[in-house]
Each structure stands twice: as C-alpha cells, then as structure tokens.
C-alpha cells in the first residue's frame, strides 16, 4: 500500500473506488438475513461471552472472538452486490442518548471489509460531501472503498447494548494513508468534516482513529508518530471539539510490516490526558482467520472488530 493524494468526500450518487487494485474483480456480498440468524444463535449459546465482550471491557480479544464466531457463520453467498440506494434522514435533533462518532484513519477504518452490512437500529451516516444524513449502510459515505465498515456494526452494538438510542457516524478515513499524510496533505478530510458537523448542528461525542499499518511499512519512529498524531488531534481541539479521541493499536496488514514495534510504541506513548487522547482496542489481536487478505477484515473479523471497539465506548 502506498500513500496517495486526498480524495474529495463522496456524494451518495458517486461511484466509490475499488477496494484495491488486486481485488477489484472480487465480489462484495450482502447477507443480512443469514447473519442475523447466526448472530442470534451465537448470543443465545454464549450469553456470558456477550457480557464479557461488550461490558467488561475487552477480556475477550480478537482471536478468540473470531474463533467463536466462525462456528456459527454460514457459508458466504456468492452474490455481487450493487451499490445501495440511500435513504435520507434528518440529522437532528440529538439527545443525551445520541452518540456522534467520527471515524478516521486508513483502510481498516474505511470501507474495505469483504461483507457489507445495513444497520438495523437507528444508525445514521452524515455524508461529508453533501452534509446530509442517510440511514447507515455499507459502504459508508465519506470513506473510500466499496466494501463493509466496522462502524456500521458498531452502531448497532451500541444501541442493542442499551448505551445509546441513536448513533450518527461521520466517516473520513482513507486507505493506504500514513499518519504524516493524514496530518498534512490529507488534513482537508478533517477540515471538511468539522465544517459539515457544525453546519448540521452536530458535536462529536467520540472520535475513533484506526491507523498505523502504513507507517509499519515505513521508517516512522515512535517519536515522529507521537508528534504527528498530537498535531492531528489539535485540529479537532482548535475547532472546539473536545470529545475523547480513541486511538487503536493497529499495524498488521499482510505480513510485510518491518516497523511494527516502533509504531506500536508510538501508539502507546501518544496517550495524553491534556488532549483527551485515550487508548482504544488492539486490533492486531484479530488474526488471519478474521481477515480476507491478511490485512482487511472478512465478515467475522468485521464483527469482532466492532465488538472490540464497543468495549472502549462509554
């Protein structure tokens, strides 16, 4: 994966980019009814697992989650899916039980999952191109890629667990992006997202940042990672957005990462009370059984991914 120039936010009728040049001929499947059946079977069989995974705070980590979920996942339906029809919804009003979540980073925060999902709960997607809100369905508007996004499932989990009664997602992630790119050439993604949030009368309650795989292939030092991320977070703080900024520990992508230790050290050192930067999940715990290509998530990996993030969101 190589860095690239920032892409303009995608409108509802714009065809998004392929997931990757090497996977452009592969199908992206939908199978919500089958998924609902096996999820129901799973939670009925493992109610304690649900409590541990979602409420205790991550004792059930990625690899174990994937192994358990695999037992209940049906065979993938070999059906290529057209881009979904968007259903517009009002962006407001919001209440104390509404989570407004910005999702930023690179491909595993964008639409690169192998399975699409349509939210079943009151989960909306603020489109950073038009400034309008739509019912959340993969691929989410605002990030690149044509596949699934963990945040859509995350919204359902947060509502089903009773923590929120509505979730609004603002995706601005770009695949193959280094921390330097997102803080410099790609800073317009944040600037535009901030402008659209303010125009819609929305204030973030959480900012999720999942990135690091690209820097794990570069020579980024821990100190450089910390400095760049602090600058990136300051862009949100300067706009008056003081929501907690959750940073995942993410470096795994295909096995050619020679700089994982430095990036992971930077992701740990960057935690900062003054800037309200908090530790998020360690997504490197999701092994290859949860990934379609050693990097991007398959269906059970995406669900495990969302469950890991849910343990950090209060």
Describe, in plain words, how this protein is organized in 3D.
By secondary structure, the chain is an alpha/beta fold. It has a single domain, classed as SGNH hydrolase (Rossmann fold), CATH 3.40.50. It is 32% helix and 14% strand. The protein has nine helices and ten strands. It has helices at 32-45, 47-56, 62-70, 150-160, 179-183, 187-199, 222-238, 260-269, 299-310; strands spanning 29-30, 88-89, 98-105, 115-116, 123-126, 133-135, 166-171, 206-210, 245-249, 277-282. The strands form two sheets. An eight-stranded mixed sheet has the order 2-6-5-7-3-8-9-10. Strands 1-4 form a two-stranded parallel sheet. The protein is globular.
User: Could you give a short account of the major beta sheet?
Assistant: 8 strands, mixed
What is the name of the CATH architecture?
A: 3-Layer(aba) Sandwich
**H/E element string?**
EHHHEEEEEHEHHEHEHEH
CATH class membership:
Alpha Beta
Mean pLDDT metric: 83
Termini gap: 33 Å
- Residues in β-strands, percent: 5-15%
According to CATH, the homologous superfamily is: SGNH hydrolase
Shape assignment? globular
Number of domains: 1
Summarize, please.
With 314 residues, the protein is an alpha/beta fold. Helix content is 32%, strand content 14%.
Topology:
Blueprint: E1 29-30, H1 32-45, H2 47-56, H3 62-70, E2 88-89, E3 98-105, E4 115-116, E5 123-126, E6 133-135, H4 150-160, E7 166-171, H5 179-183, H6 187-199, E8 206-210, H7 222-238, E9 245-249, H8 260-269, E10 277-282, H9 299-310
Parallel strand pairs: 1-4, 3-7, 3-8, 5-7, 8-9, 9-10
Antiparallel strand pairs: 2-6, 5-6
Helix pairs in contact: 1-2, 3-9, 4-9, 7-8
